[in-house]
Design a protein that fits this description.
Helix content: 40-55%
Shape: globular
Strand content: 5-15%
Radius of gyration: 22 Å
Oligomer: single chain
Number of strands: 13
Strand order of the largest sheet: 3-2-1-4-5-6-7
Number of helices: 18
Distance between the termini: 40 Å
């Protein structure tokens, strides 16, 4: 083991010792201050936890809206605006991390948080003033920003995974992976369920689809952002599907509504692409937004999922989440076996509940036979997967499972 690795291992040992002492201090506090960072609606997973903490007089919880610095400036601004509108609509107390004058909100001075939830374990996507390395004296926590299906060091052994006080994971299979790959052997993992489960399992979902003259089938198309060539993350099929999906929307205008739900980063990547750029990208997005039987969805997606009839996608983050709807779903890939190589056992189980599409003909057959005619042989498998893996443990909500961890530690 080289010196750098040795220092890192020692650091991973020292941090929990400090956290233990800090918890002793919190136990004597009348009010525990909690900060939840939010970058965009798609990655915002703390809604239920926020409302539960707000009802408990022991906790004071505040949301801090920050931009994802890896996104296009226009996308950063739009994401922050959408978050603010959502928080105002849902009575959530928030502050802008960076105001319109470029000034940073000093959370240490104005809030002095005891607990901080980060939306991602990668500090490079976060403004430098809010790097987790600036708050190592606090209790850092994490809800995964997606229902995790990948395996390996990248997924479980980032620095944040090892220094966070608590990682609130979704299933026992995720804890097993953390024990296998993380340097700290997953000692900071708590199984509480997937945070968005509380919202998916809510029975009151809004119909956010465009009003049509007659009831049509509703299909979501959710392409990933990785349009660049090469690399382990390369999985998007957007470039060959872009015009084809618009053609499908026109061809089935009397039978189907389509919702275009791109990964938040796709806009940024298209604007940088040599064959697209800002003008073409904006025009393409506008087509989806303005056609009679189509719509552009760039924010919250739970109501969208739960009121849809099917989805077509190649986004790993939705591989599990769409199964909360228990509706048919197609994953687009021309190399299914290679795609599975990077998946965990849980990820493979989730993929097995998908119809697989490799070309335009497969997509058309899925629409014709499964969506329109209702020939759905995978329905029973999806329902079993839902019951076994998607319901939160202990017969409680995910937020309550998380709160139970807090109460056990601080009370």
């Amino acid at each position: 083991m080289n010196l750098k690795a040795l220092i890192r291992r020692l650091f991973y040992i020292i941090i929990p010792l400090y956290q233990h002492l800090y918890i002793k201090r919190i136990q004597s506090k009348k009010t525990i201050n909690v900060v939840l960072f939010a970058m965009n609606l798609s990655m915002w997973k703390c809604e239920s936890l926020y409302h539960l903490l707000s009802k408990n007089s022991r906790f004071k919880v505040t949301v801090i809206v920050i931009p994802c610095t890896d996104y296009d400036l226009k996308q950063q601004k739009k994401d922050c605006e959408n978050l603010c509108l959502h928080f105002e609509k849902n009575n959530i107390d928030y502050h802008l991390g960076i105001n319109e004058n470029g000034n940073y909100y000093n959370i240490r001075k104005k809030i002095n948080p005891d607990i901080i939830f980060y939306p991602q374990p990668y500090k490079t996507y976060i403004p430098t003033k809010f790097y987790y390395t600036r708050f190592l004296d606090k209790l850092l926590c994490y809800y995964p920003y997606a229902f995790w299906t990948s395996k390996g060091v990248w997924s479980y052994d980032q620095a944040y995974h090892n220094i966070a006080w608590k990682l609130f994971y979704s299933t026992e299979l995720h804890k097993i992976d953390a024990q296998k790959y993380a340097s700290n052997k997953g000692k900071n993992v708590e199984i509480v369920g997937y945070p968005n489960a509380d919202l998916f399992l809510n029975q009151n979902h809004l119909n956010i689809w465009k009003v049509q003259s007659n009831r049509k089938k509703r299909i979501i198309w959710a392409p990933h952002f990785t349009i660049f060539s090469g690399g382990s993350l390369y999985q998007s099929n957007f470039l060959w599907m872009a015009n084809f999906m618009l053609e499908l929307a026109r061809s089935y205008s009397d039978k189907i509504q389509f919702a275009f739900k791109p990964h938040p980063r796709l806009y940024t990547e298209l604007c940088k692409h040599k064959d697209w750029g800002n003008e073409i990208t904006n025009a393409y997005y506008q087509q989806w937004e303005t056609m009679e039987n189509t719509q552009l969805e760039s924010g919250e997606y739970i109501d969208l999922f739960m009121t849809s009839d099917a989805m077509i996608h190649d986004s790993s983050s939705f591989t599990v989440e769409y199964h909360y709807s228990q509706k048919p779903v197609m994953f687009i890939t021309n190399n299914y076996e290679e795609h599975l190589e990077g998946k965990s056992e849980f990820g493979k189980l989730a993929m097995e509940q998908h119809y697989i599409g490799k070309d335009q003909e497969d997509i058309i057959q899925f629409i014709e036979n499964v969506v329109l005619k209702g020939n759905d042989p995978m329905k029973a498998g999806r329902e079993d997967f839902f019951k076994q893996y998607l319901l939160p443990p202990n017969g409680k909500t995910v937020a309550q499972n998380t709160m139970d961890v807090f109460i056990k530690a601080f009370c």
